[in-house]
């Protein structure tokens, strides 16, 4: 079995309750982070 390791990290923006990210769904924020990590790692 092939080992899987995390070689890059990213995070979502930090906002305040009811702020500019209030209307962005959690899965969309997560997908944005995943895309960024994959882009950075090649």
Automatic annotation (TrEMBL):
Its EC number is 2.3.1.9. Keywords: Acyltransferase, Transferase. Pfam families: Thiolase_N. GO terms for molecular function: acetyl-CoA C-acetyltransferase activity. Transmembrane segments: none annotated. Residues 4-41 form the Thiolase N-terminal domain. The keyword Transport does not apply. SUPFAM superfamilies: Thiolase-like. This is Acetyl-CoA C-acetyltransferase.
């Amino acid at each position: 079995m092939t080992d899987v390791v995390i070689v890059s990290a990213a995070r979502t923006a930090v906002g305040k309750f009811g702020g500019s990210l209030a209307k962005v769904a959690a899965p969309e924020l997560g997908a944005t982070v995943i895309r960024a990590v994959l882009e950075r790692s090649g």
